[in-house]
Amino acid sequence: MARVVRGFLALEAAAFLAAAGVHSGLVLRGHEHARAATAETVIGVVLAAGLLASVLAPRWSRAVGLGAQGFALLGTCVGLLTIAIGVGPRTAPDLLFHGRIVAVLVAGLVWLRLRPAGGPQGATP
């Protein structure tokens, strides 16, 4: 279980940190948005911290994964709300990113939620 959790967390953290790089102008010019970059950085760091925690404490991988991905999904929903009300960036790449990352976050949460807690599965490194 821990390996799958780490896979989800690594993919999600990389996606959010890449999006933060785009919105900060480090990766791509013309799509700068300071508030989006800040939010994506915070979410990416939380996911990366979850990844580190799952490496250091494999027995806690399920709980850490649920918490970090739940936080990321909540933050992403706030981002979608800002897009809907016209505060956040409204480009096609932003909408595509949000749609895909929501799908990945939901898949990770569902996968973790359907797995039994504890036992040997939770301790697998």
What is the string of helix and strand elements? HHHHH
**Strand-pairing-aware structural class:** mainly alpha
Percent of residues in β-strands? under 5%
Radius of gyration: 15 Å
Overall structural domain count: 1
The 3D shape can be described as elongated
Number of distinct beta strands? 0
Specify the biggest β-sheet: none
Distance between the termini: 8 Å
Approximately how much helix is present in the residues? over 70%
Count, helices: 5
Query: Which spans of ≥5 residues are poorly predicted at pLDDT below 50?
Result: 119-125
Question: What is the residue-mean pLDDT, rounded to a whole number?
Answer: 89
Question: Mind explaining what this structure looks like?
Answer:
This protein has one domain (2-123). Helix content is 79%, strand content 0%. It has helices spanning 2-24, 34-56, 61-85, 92-114, 119-123.
Summarize the structure.
The protein is mainly alpha-helical.
What's the structural blueprint in terms of helices and strands?
Blueprint (H helix, E strand, L loop, with lengths): L1 H23 L9 H23 L4 H25 L6 H23 L4 H5 L2
List its traits.
disordered C terminus, 79% helix, 125 residues, single chain, mainly alpha
